[in-house]
Design a protein that fits this description.
By secondary structure, the chain is an alpha+beta fold. The chain contains 1 helix and 17 strands. It folds into 2 domains: 129 residues, no CATH class; 40 residues. The strands form 6 sheets. Strands 3, 4, 7, 8, 12 and 15 form a 6-stranded antiparallel sheet that branches. The protein has a 3-stranded antiparallel sheet with strand order 9-10-11, with no helix packed on it. Strands 1-17 form a two-stranded antiparallel sheet. The longest helix is centred in the C-terminal third of the chain and has 38 residues.
């Protein structure tokens, strides 16, 4: 028997996080199930689609809507580009993008039948592995918001306290057994 602890499992909770208003035009939050599609270019310039719920986007000087790493947000017509001189950019809850009242494109939102077919890529993106199936997303988009982490601080704190108490109880058992063995060794030595 080996003393110590072992990691039982690691999993990703894809549950909805709370929405926080930022007021930034290109901050987009998803409410419901779904992922943004992001085109990531490799060293050869070929683009591959990845999926994320991180909606912190910005616009380049060329009018491309990109994430913080410069990867393009994907729409129905490809990578979303708005006119650089547009002053009023609106993104509806269905993903329709308007620049100065003129329709530009529609943000693609994708969902999956089974999240077990998603493989983590980088810090906040996922790729679909073989066997995974896409399906229409039910999420709606909120412009000027970001989705916050979905961690429930209270339940995590309660779990941490329970684990700490169990650890302390086990530590006391080990100390008691150690003291008993020490007394037995010392008593045998006196005889």
């Amino acid at each position: 028997m080996t003393p110590g602890v072992k990691l039982g499992e690691v999993y990703t909770d894809f549950g909805q996080g709370s929405l926080r208003e930022t007021g930034n035009t290109f901050d987009l939050a998803l409410e419901g199930k779904g992922f943004f599609q992001i085109a990531v270019a490799n060293e050869n310039g070929n683009e591959q689609i990845y999926y994320t719920r991180d909606g912190s986007f910005t616009m380049t000087r060329d009018g491309n809507i990109v994430d913080m790493n410069g990867n393009s947000l994907v729409g129905e017509s490809g990578n979303i580009t708005v006119p650089e001189d547009a002053t009023d950019i609106v993104i509806d809850t269905d993903g329709s993008v308007y620049a100065d009242g003129v329709f530009v494109d529609k943000v693609l939102i994708t969902d999956f039948e089974d999240y077990n077919y998603l493989k983590k890529y980088g810090e906040n993106m996922y790729s679909l592995v073989e066997g995974g199936t896409q399906m229409p997303a039910t999420a709606s988009i909120h412009q000027g918001y970001t989705e916050q982490p979905n961690v429930n601080v209270v339940s995590e704190m309660v779990d941490m306290i329970a684990i700490t108490r169990a650890y302390e109880a086990n530590q006391k058992v080990i100390q008691t057994v150690d003291n008993t063995l020490e007394q037995a060794v010392n008593s045998v030595g006196k005889v």
